[in-house]
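Our working data are protein records whose layout never changes between entries. Instead of coordinates, the fold is spelled out as a row of discrete tokens. Here is such a record, shown just as it appears in the course material:
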Amino acid sequence: MKITSVDVFECKFVKDKVVCVRVNTDEGISGFGEVGLAYGTAHHAAVGIARDYAGYIIGKDPMRIEQIWESIFRNTFWGMGSGTVIAAGMAAIDIALWDIKGKALGVPVYELLGGKTNETIRAYASQLQFDWGDVHRNITKPEDYYEATKKAMAQGYTAVKVDPIGVTNAGIWARESNDPSWKMRGKMSAEMVATGYQRVAAMREAGGKDLDIIIELHSYTDAITAVQLGKALEPLNIYYYEEPVHPLNVENMLEVHKNVNIPIASGERIYTRWGFREFLEKGAIQVIQPDVCNTGGISETKKICDMANIYDASVQIHVCGGPISTAAALQIETVIPNFLIHEVHEGAIKKEVCELGKYSIQPVNGVYTVPDRPGIGQELSDKAMAEAVNVYTFK
């Protein structure tokens, strides 16, 4: 079998962007992958790296996944430096190759990774500072956080995640605000700490003692403010504390871990095994969050998860993209023994995102059953491909 062409799709998507690849072969089997940095402010970089690597793999045997991964990593010069753009491009190709291999052999990818360890996949509702449901909006009042939590629980979720200080009291997303009273670095005001606490306390009241609440800080805080807020939230029994400091600063992450009695999580902006190594060796994070679509694909994410298991670190794969991202994550999560929980992002439940996938893969009562279709179990829909803003084909 040989790779004959690669299509790069800039999918039409109202709020953010999704960039996917389709790797085609001379036996009529195609595999789909996703470039995980298309959201945020990196859309054109996502398209560019997908185009670069598309041309690189033409003529290669798609069944030799490890060989192709190593070839891109070792032989493209920038590959060994890794980083967001490079690892995301590698990820898209790698996921598509696993999809091809599963389809060629007639089995789900999870069978090729060792078979199921987890029959079902517990999920959580993510980013409740934007509410939960059909409408994306910044919420401010504790009662809004209470209601958002109730909405998620009504759908069967037993865990939620929130950035309690991501939205200012004026309803502005913090990184877009110039409000001097909303200072997340140096030292928080007593009012700001109280606001974060009150919002989370309202969620605890809504969910009772059995609801797991995850705190997300998006690395907007530094070690001082992260410790300040974390210690205030300790009495609310927080499940884990995500990205409290710069995502590549091991020592600062460790400083927060030593001073806050909540497990520390990070990983969506840590790339490849080489990136995770020091965090695990120093015990700086207890929950790793690699993103399959930006840390090197299924091949690399599985290795990262296995490495984490040596250090008793649990895994919550970061999922913040389109349906391909969700499907690839589920294939790994059902296999690994140190799986903790799956992320369902607030943006991913929107109709326009769901329609990008050929198949409906949704949690029921907050729990996924992993598809048993050959490959990753998901493809871009005909509608998504037909309505793509741009399609680039390489032969």
